[in-house]
Amino acid sequence: MITTLIQIKNPAPMSLDTAKEIFIGTAPKYRDVPGLIRKYYLLSEDGGTAGGVYLWESRDAAKAMYNQEWYAFIREKYGVDPEVTYFESPVVVDNLTAEIIDA
To answer: What is the CATH number of the domain that holds 43?
Structure first.
C-alpha cells in the first residue's frame, strides 16, 4: 500500500469553515477512484496549509490520480501547485474495523 501526503500552501490563511465548504464540494470527486482506499482532508491550525492524506492500493493507482488534469484542478481551486510526497505503508491499524492490514 502507498500513502500520499498532499500539501497546498495557501496564498492566504483559510478558515476552518471555508475549508470545510471547499472540502465537502470536492469530496464527491474522490468517490470510486480506482485504487483509493481512504482520503483524509487536512487543514493546518493556522490555516496556511491545506491538503490530504490518501491511502492507495498501489503507487500506480496514486500516480494515475495525480495527472495533469488533477494538478490543473488543484491550481484552479487553490491558486498554487500541490506538493506530493509518497510513503510506503506496509501496515495499517484500523480501529473502526478492528483490523491490522499488511500490504
So the answer is: 3.30.70.100
pLDDT at position 103: 80
Distance in angstroms (rounded) separating the CA atoms of residues 24 and 26: 6
Task: State the pTM of this model.
Answer: 0.91
Helix/strand/coil for 8: strand
Q: Kindly state the cell numbers that stand for 56.
A: 492507495
Measured CA to CA, the distance from residue 26 to residue 4 in angstroms comes to 18
Domain of 30?
2-102
Residue range 54-79, pLDDT digits in tens: 999 999 999 999 999 999 999 998 89
Within the chain, which residues score under 50 in pLDDT? none
50 DSSP β-pair partners: 8, 43
